[in-house]
C-alpha cells in the first residue's frame, strides 16, 4: 500500500535495455522507478525494502519466463499482494489467460503506448490501495470483535466468581495462565496454547446454575447438594452452547470434561483415558491445582504450592493423564510465579488483560531482504539465463522451506 506523501515504487522488469529506458522515462515523472533485466534481479528487488507497489513484468525473459517469476512472487507471502502487469508482444488469448490465472492483474501489449501505460498503472495502484485499506479495516474490525469477545468471557468468569464467593480474587487470571503454561509444556502448538488461555476462564461457568448458598456452604455437602454441584459441567456446556468459533468450542469442551478422571470414575460422563478430550485432561490438572491452593468454603486453609504439587503428582495415572506428568513438572516453576503474581492477597485486579507480555522476543520468519542478491555481471560474458533460472529456483526453495 502506498504511504501518504510517498511516491509509489514501480519495478520495471524487461531484458530489452531500450524498452526499460523508455518506460523509466515515461513513469519517472510520477513514480519512483526501479529496473530489472531478468527474473533473478526482479525477485531480488521485489524482496527488498521498500517493496515495489506495482511490477511491470516482461513475459519473455532469459532463463526464467515472466510466468515463472510471477508464480514465485505470488507464492511468497512477502510479495503476493504486489500487483503484476505483464508486458508482451503476444496477443493470443490463451497466453493472457495463463498470466491472469497466475495472479497478474492486467496485460499491456508491445509496442506500449505511454498514455495507456500511465492510465493502467494509475488504475491498478488505486485498486491495490483500496484493497489494502479494506483489508486493514477488516483486520481492525476483527480485532475489535475479538477483544469484545475476550472481555465478555472475562466478565462472565468474574460474575461466576462473585456467585461462588463474595470475595472474588484473581482466579480467572491464574487458571488462564496455568492452562496455557501446561499446554505449552505438553508440546501444544502456540495457537492451541493461546486458545487455552482465552477459553479457560469459562471452564467453571456452569456453577452459575448452582445456588450460591450451596456453593458457599461450609463443610461436607449433603448428597442432594453434591448432586447439584456435580451438574455444573453439563450446565456449563449448555450455557456456552455449541459454536464453530474455536474459543467458545474449546470453552465448552473444558466446561464439560474438566471433572472427568483418567480411571473413569469422574463425572458427568465417566469417561476414561483418551476418551477424555486432551484439553479436558489438561484443565483437570489446572482446576485441581487451583482449588488446592485457594481458600475454599469447605476447606478454610489452602494447601501450599509444594503440598498441592505433591498431591497432583501422586494422582497421575488415576485422576490425571500420566503422559502429562512431565509437562506438569516442567510448567510448575512458571505456575508458581503466576500464583504469586496474581495472588488473591493483592485484592481485585482491575486489569483483566490475559495477553502475553509485550517484551517477549518477536518470533516468525525473517524478512526476505536477506535473500541472495544476484551475482554481479562480469565485464566479459555472463550467462544471464542461467543466473535468472538459478535465482527463481532458489526463491522457490526458500518459500518451500518456510512452509
In terms of topology, how is this protein built?
Blueprint: E1 9-13, H1 17-27, E2 32-36, H2 39-46, E3 54-58, H3 66-75, E4 84-88, H4 93-101, E5 106-109, H5 114-164, H6 171-185, H7 190-199, H8 212-215, H9 223-229, H10 232-240, H11 246-257, H12 278-292, H13 305-313, H14 325-341, H15 384-402
Parallel strand pairs: 1-2, 1-3, 3-4, 4-5
Helix pairs in contact: 2-3, 2-15, 3-15, 6-7, 6-12, 6-14, 7-11, 10-11, 11-12, 12-13
Q: Which strand order do you get reading across the main beta sheet?
A: 2-1-3-4-5
CATH architecture level-2 label of the largest domain:
Orthogonal Bundle
So what's the CATH class of the largest domain? Mainly Alpha
Oligomer: single chain
The portion of residues forming beta strands comes to 5-15%
- The residue ranges in which pLDDT falls below 50 over 5 or more consecutive positions are 346-381
Q: Give the CATH H-level superfamily of the largest domain.
A: Hypothetical protein af1432
Radius of gyration (Å): 30 Å
Number of strands: 5
Major sheet size, sense and barrel closure: 5 strands, parallel
Terminal residue distance? 25 Å
Enumerate how many helices there are, as a single number: 15
Give a structural overview:
With 403 residues, this protein is mainly alpha-helical. The protein folds into 2 domains: 9-112 and 371-402, Rossmann fold (3-Layer(aba) Sandwich), CATH 3.40.50; 167-346, Hypothetical protein af1432 (Orthogonal Bundle), CATH 1.10.3210.10. 51% of the residues lie in helices and 6% in strands. Helix 6 runs antiparallel to helix 7 (190-199). The longest helix is centred in the middle third of the chain and has 51 residues, at 114-164. The two termini are 25 Å apart.
Amino acid at each position: 500500500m502506498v504511504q501518504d506523501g510517498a511516491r509509489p515504487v514501480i519495478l520495471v522488469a524487461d531484458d530489452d535495455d531500450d524498452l526499460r529506458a523508455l518506460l523509466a522515462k515515461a513513469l519517472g515523472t510520477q513514480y519512483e522507478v526501479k529496473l530489472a533485466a531478468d527474473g533473478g534481479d526482479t525477485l531480488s528487488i521485489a524482496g527488498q525494502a521498500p517493496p515495489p507497489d506495482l511490477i511491470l513484468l516482461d513475459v519473455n525473459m532469459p532463463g526464467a519466463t515472466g510466468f515463472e517469476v510471477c508464480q514465485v512472487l505470488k507464492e511468497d507471502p512477502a510479495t503476493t499482494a504486489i500487483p503484476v502487469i505483464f508486458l508482451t508482444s503476444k496477443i493470443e488469448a490463451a497466453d493472457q489467460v495463463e498470466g491472469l490465472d497466475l495472479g497478474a492483474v492486467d496485460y499491456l501489449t508491445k509496442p506500449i503506448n505511454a498514455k495507456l501505460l500511465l492510465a493502467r498503472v494509475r488504475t491498478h495502484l488505486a485498486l491495490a490501495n483500496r484493497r489494502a485499506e479494506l483489508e486493514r479495516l477488516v483486520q481492525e474490525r476483527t480485532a475489535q470483535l475479538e477483544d469484545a469477545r475476550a472481555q465478555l468471557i472475562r466478565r462472565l468468569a468474574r460474575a461466576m466468581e462473585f456467585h461462588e464467593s463474595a470475595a472474588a480474587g484473581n482466579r480467572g487470571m491464574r487458571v488462564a495462565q496455568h492452562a496455557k503454561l501446561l499446554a505449552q509444556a505438553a508440546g501444544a502448538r502456540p495457537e492451541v496454547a493461546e486458545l487455552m488461555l482465552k477459553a479457560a476462564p469459562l471452564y467453571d461457568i456452569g456453577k452459575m446454575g448452582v445456588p450460591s448458598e450451596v456453593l458457599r456452604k461450609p463443610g461436607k455437602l449433603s448428597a442432594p447438594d453434591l448432586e447439584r454441584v456435580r451438574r455444573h459441567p453439563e450446565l456449563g456446556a449448555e450455557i456456552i452452547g455449541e459454536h464453530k468459533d474455536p474459543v467458545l468450542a474449546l470453552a465448552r469442551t473444558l466446561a464439560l470434561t474438566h471433572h472427568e478422571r483418567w480411571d473413569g470414575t469422574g463425572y458427568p460422563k465417566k469417561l476414561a483415558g483418551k476418551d477424555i478430550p486432551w484439553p479436558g485432561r489438561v484443565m483437570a490438572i489446572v482446576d485441581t491445582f487451583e482449588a488446592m491452593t485457594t481458600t475454599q468454603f469447605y476447606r478454610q486453609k489452602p494447601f501450599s504450592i509444594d503440598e498441592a504439587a505433591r498431591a497432583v503428582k501422586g494422582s497421575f495415572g488415576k485422576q490425571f493423564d500420566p503422559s502429562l506428568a512431565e509437562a506438569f513438572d516442567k510448567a510448575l516453576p512458571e505456575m508458581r510465579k503466576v500464583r504469586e503474581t496474581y495472588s488473591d492477597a493483592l485484592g481485585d485486579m482491575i486489569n483483566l488483560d490475559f495477553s502475553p507480555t509485550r517484551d517477549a522476543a518477536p518470533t516468525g520468519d525473517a524478512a526476505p531482504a536477506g535473500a541472495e542478491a544476484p551475482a554481479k555481471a562480469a565485464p566479459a560474458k555472463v550467462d544471464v539465463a542461467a543466473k535468472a533460472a538459478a535465482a527463481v529456483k532458489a526463491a522457490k526453495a526458500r518459500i518451500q522451506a518456510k512452509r
